[in-house]
Structure to design on (470 residues):
């Protein structure tokens, strides 16, 4: 049994909030630079150059890459031999509160979905906990912008729709989103589970580095096929036309019911942010 | 290659700005998102005065991050425009000539743009740090209670935008994509 003080979680999360919003993960920068090298359409090249310039300015001045510093998603894999001293939820929210205040990040959370009054400190965080063996805590802070979140979709397909149905739904979602989610995008896909688990898988797919492919060869091929199909749509950076519509397609799956084929598509923009640490 | 435009954009200037043009805007613009738009349209509907002069005004759909010490404004890229679609026709009718955002617009907005004369620009979504550098000053004009969503008056210098939809209804989201797809199809045929 190991004891971890909740105050350590607060400090860590506060720092991760700022870091995640100002510095793009290495893999995302590589994807966009690869895309720039591949892009032949002049307008698209110009947009990609400005996007790269923006990353550089944010990095150099340590300012947010995008003004939508998001709702703060906090994923925690908690070792079952860890004892947390203090209130876990409050510790996470205090970290978000401090990070967003001290890091000059935008407060984008309303307390109620219909009455819509801003909470003023970007809390509450969206907290996802998972119990795992061991005595460590793995933390991932992922600010999620809503321009892309609003373009995400879920479908309860029939088993007979099969892989073709899944492909068609992914393409339809990206097509309908068009220029709205700030392409080039990252596409997180969750297949299987239940209505809610499919959505969670899609979100978790966005947390996976774009350097990694699905370990199952069948799904790795599907990821690569869908990336090619999306980049043949011609939407291009910011929707002005071009090859670079998506930078990656990440698919996560799990078992499901004999009667169902849930598919969720969670879209993220070119500012796909996440920062992890192991305590 | 990028044409410089000094704001305000008058109704006469509107027709000279064409879909697909890259422009650098300088002068005064106002910021408003969903919540501020809702309040503005409520004022119009009840016949009350707006907190700024809407005639020939350009509105930027942005909710910036707080300014760090020494900054005029924090990161300030565009938000998705379709959420303003319910309100834009009323503002265009009252005199708004320019809108800056990102993403698609409704038929109702485009009809109002054609009828009264207005243009829709896109700034690069997700390029908040870059665009912030073009904003020289920012002051809150109204709705301070909305925080990031308050109505601000900005002085901008060479703000890079692309005209997506012009006052004839030409739309770069349709023509740009088609031009790209036609070109690669032709290339494939000649290969």
């Amino acid at each position: 049994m190991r004891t971890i003080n909740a105050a350590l979680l607060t400090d860590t999360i506060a720092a991760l909030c700022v870091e995640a919003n100002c510095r793009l993960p290495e893999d995302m920068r590589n994807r966009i630079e690869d895309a720039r090298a591949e892009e032949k359409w002049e307008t698209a090249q110009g947009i990609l150059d400005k996007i790269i310039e923006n990353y550089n300015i944010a990095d150099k001045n340590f300012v947010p890459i995008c003004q939508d510093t998001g709702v703060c998603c906090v994923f925690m894999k908690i070792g079952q031999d860890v004892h947390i001293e203090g209130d876990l939820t409050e510790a996470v929210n205090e970290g978000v509160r401090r990070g967003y205040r001290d890091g000059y990040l935008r407060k984008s959370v309303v307390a109620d979905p219909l009455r819509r009054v801003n909470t003023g400190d970007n809390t509450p965080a969206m907290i996802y906990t998972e119990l795992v063996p061991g005595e460590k805590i793995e933390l991932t802070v992922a600010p999620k912008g809503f321009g892309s979140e609003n373009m995400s979709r879920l479908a309860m397909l029939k088993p007979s729709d099969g892989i073709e149905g899944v492909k068609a739904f992914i393409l339809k979602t990206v097509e309908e989103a068009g220029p709205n989610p700030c392409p080039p995008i990252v596409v997180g896909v969750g297949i299987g589970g239940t209505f809610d688990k499919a959505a969670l898988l899609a979100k978790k797919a966005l947390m996976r580095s774009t350097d990694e492919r699905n370990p199952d060869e069948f799904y790795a091929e599907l990821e690569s096929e869908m990336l090619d199909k999306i980049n043949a749509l011609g939407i291009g950076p910011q929707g002005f036309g071009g090859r670079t519509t998506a930078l990656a397609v990440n698919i996560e799956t799990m078992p499901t019911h004999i009667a169902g084929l849930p598919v969720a598509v969670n879209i993220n923009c070119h500012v796909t942010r996440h920062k992890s640490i192991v305590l | 290659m990028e044409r410089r435009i000094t704001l305000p954009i008058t109704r006469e200037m509107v027709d000279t700005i064409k879909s697909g043009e890259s422009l650098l805007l300088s002068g005064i613009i106002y910021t408003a998102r969903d919540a501020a738009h809702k309040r503005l349209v409520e004022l119009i509907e009840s016949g009350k005065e707006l907190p700024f002069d809407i005639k020939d005004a350009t509105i930027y759909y942005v909710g910036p991050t707080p300014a760090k010490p020494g900054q005029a404004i924090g990161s300030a890229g565009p938000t998705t425009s379709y959420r303003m679609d319910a309100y834009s026709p009323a503002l265009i009718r009252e005199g708004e000539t320019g809108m800056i955002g990102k993403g698609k617009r409704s038929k109702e907005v485009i009809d109002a743009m054609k009828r009264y004369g207005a243009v829709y620009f896109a700034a690069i979504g997700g390029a908040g740090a870059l665009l912030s550098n073009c904003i020289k000053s920012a002051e809150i004009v109204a709705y301070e209670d909305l925080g990031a969503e308050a109505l601000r008056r900005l002085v901008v210098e060479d703000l890079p935008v692309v005209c997506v939809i012009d006052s004839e209804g030409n739309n770069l989201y349709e023509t740009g994509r088609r031009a790209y797809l036609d070109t690669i199809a032709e290339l494939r045929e000649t290969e």
